[in-house]
Amino acid sequence: MTRKSFSARTLDAKALKSFAHPLRLRLYELLDEHGPSTATQLAARVHENTGATSYHLRELARHGMIEPVPELGRGKEKFWRITPGGFAFGSPPDSDPETASAVEFLIADVIRQRGAELARWQEEEGSTPEEWVRASGLTRRSLRLTAEELTSLSHQVHEVLAVYRELSDRRERESAGDPDPATAKVVIHFDTFPVGRRNAPEKGPQG
What is the number of other CB atoms lying within 10 angstroms of the CB of residue 76? Predict the structure, then answer.
């Protein structure tokens, strides 16, 4: 199944298999949360040696998930950041169970991370400045739509998100690791899926 992607790139099979690794996912998550970091800084956060984090960071970079920040660091010190634009999961072919398994692993991690982010917001909301609380929101809607209408809805929302993603990416590039104090990292969860539309099991031969 082909899906229109509003991401900068769709991960190919090799990238999916490489990304589906617990430590690489954690390093990517930390770079997303804390911004540009070195292998040494990340090693201290994940309680690993610098050699291990350096290796996994190079693997993430090899598949375009992260990139070096040349303007930061001194001497051999290298800072890494998330590659602007984000990414999307492609649909693995039925003939490639290894890639399908990697996609399942990554989706499970997305679900875990979203639950953790919502729990963190629930904990922090009471001490967050009022203007940010008013600007935030948790929304759930249950609609009855056709497949074509659902596709149209998704495309329209992603088009809006793309405008703000470009704005955010430009700020990231221009900040050189020193973000504007008037901004905050904002997490947006958007999922669309049908409920109760499983294919009916095939009936066996009648006796």
Answer: 5
Where is 11: in which H helix or E strand? strand 10-11
Q: Are strands 79-82 and 37-38 parallel, antiparallel or unpaired?
A: antiparallel
Q: So what's the pLDDT on residue 204?
A: 56
Indicate the fold that domain 10-139 takes in CATH: Arc Repressor Mutant, subunit A (1.10.10)
DSSP three-state, residue 112: helix
Q: Judging by DSSP bridges, how do beta strands 79-82 and 66-68 pair with one another? A: antiparallel
- Region of 121 (left: φ > 0; alpha: ψ -120 to 50; beta: rest) is alpha
The full length of the chain comes to: 207
43, 52 in Cβ contact below 8 A?
Answer: yes
At residue 2, the pLDDT reads 43
- The per-residue pLDDT for range 12-36, each reduced to its tens digit, is 888 899 999 999 999 999 998 888 8
Closest by CA position to 15, among listed 87, 85, 84: 87
Residue ranges of the chain whose pLDDT lies below 50: 1-5, 207
**Cα(162)–Cα(158) distance, integer angstroms:** 6
CA neighbor of 57 nearest in space, from 103, 100, 48: 48
| CA neighbor of 64 nearest in space, from 112, 104, 16 | 16
- Alpha-carbon distance of 36 to 89, in angstroms, equals 24
Contact call for residues 21 and 46 (beta carbons, < 8 A): no
What is the domain partition of the chain in residue ranges? 10-139
The model's pTM: 0.76
